[in-house]
């Protein structure tokens, strides 16, 4: 079978890689969604001479040999290439600011992820409660105010920011607390609109269930 031109290497989880998958899916771009365990990645990294400190995700273009490393770098490349990076420099700056904010939220989630990986679900519940109180609740209020009555967070068409926000909230809802978005109906409606787009709806319906 012919190898797909694009190969996205990532862990078998949603995490920072899922938004990249969603951009490719929404744009109708075929790609090899190559999911690895940490042990498999270490083996592949050594076999293919990636630097020792290379972290997933990695995007490889087998047609031109281009390799991009890191979720932000890949995200910016795909957003530009696929038309999800706004219509002006000002909109790109708004998108970048929203993505940076999501990154800080993801970093603050680390204790929840650690508890999940060790299957310490009592600890996970406690860490999630702390995360909600100290980080997420305030950010959700800010995002609600930012979106207002608009369909999209930036400009008049879907962007990297819309996909990233919807994905992060969907992951939190599916993996940690399926009821928290009930308190944020504006954001929940936005998430449902994004996940209801035809290509994404088909992908979500067959998406693998993971723990984070």
Automatic annotation (TrEMBL):
GO BP term, pick one: glutathione metabolic process
Domain of life assignment: Eukaryota
PROSITE patterns associated with the record: GST_CTER, GST_NTER
Domain GST N-terminal: 4-86
Membrane spanning residue stretches: none
CDD domains xref list: GST_C_Sigma_like (cd03192)
Domain GST C-terminal span(s) in chain numbering: 88-212
InterPro entries: Glutathione-S-Trfase_C-like (IPR010987), Glutathione-S-Trfase_C_sf (IPR036282), Glutathione_S-Trfase_N (IPR004045), GST_C (IPR004046), GST_superfamily (IPR050213), Thioredoxin-like_sf (IPR036249)
Pfam families documented for this protein: GST_C_3 (PF14497)
MF terms (GO), sorted A to Z: glutathione transferase activity
Name of this protein: Hematopoietic prostaglandin D synthase
Species this chain originates from: Toxocara canis
